Amino acid sequence: MQTKDVDKLKILSTFLKDVLYSWAKASYTEPTCIGKEIIWNNPNITDQNKKTFFYHKWYDRGIKVH
């Protein structure tokens, strides 16, 4: 999760929003090799509506990375 994603969530609790923002800031790293990124639910790989992808049948067949 990136810090910009926290703002998209409809969270009313300031405390919870701060916790998520801090966690996102501490845990997110820019990918160094896009070819080794996980495809599913990756915020760097989206459709034109900024939605991430997850195809259950592909995942079940072992397609998990690039």
Task: Kindly describe this structure.
It is a single chain. With 66 residues, the protein is mainly alpha-helical. It is built from three helices and no strands. The chain has two domains: 30 residues, no CATH class; 34 residues, no CATH class. The longest helix has 14 residues. The two termini are 19 Å apart. The model has no long low-confidence stretch (mean pLDDT 81).
Comma- or semicolon-separated keywords:
0% strand, 2 domains, 66 residues
Describe the secondary structure blueprint for this structure.
Elements: H1 3-8, H2 14-27, H3 56-60
Q: Concise description?
A:
The chain contains 3 helices and no strands.
CA distance, first residue to last residue: 19 Å
The number of domains: 2
By DSSP (H or I, 4+ residues per run), the number of helices equals 3
Radius of gyration: 14 Å
What is the general shape?
globular
Q: Could you name the ranges where pLDDT drops below 50 across 5 or more consecutive residues? A: none
Helix content: 25-40%
- What value does the average pLDDT take? 81
Classify the beta-strand content into a percent band.
under 5%
Structural class by secondary-structure content? mainly alpha
Main beta-sheet annotation: none
Number of strands: 0
Report the order of strands and helices.
HHH
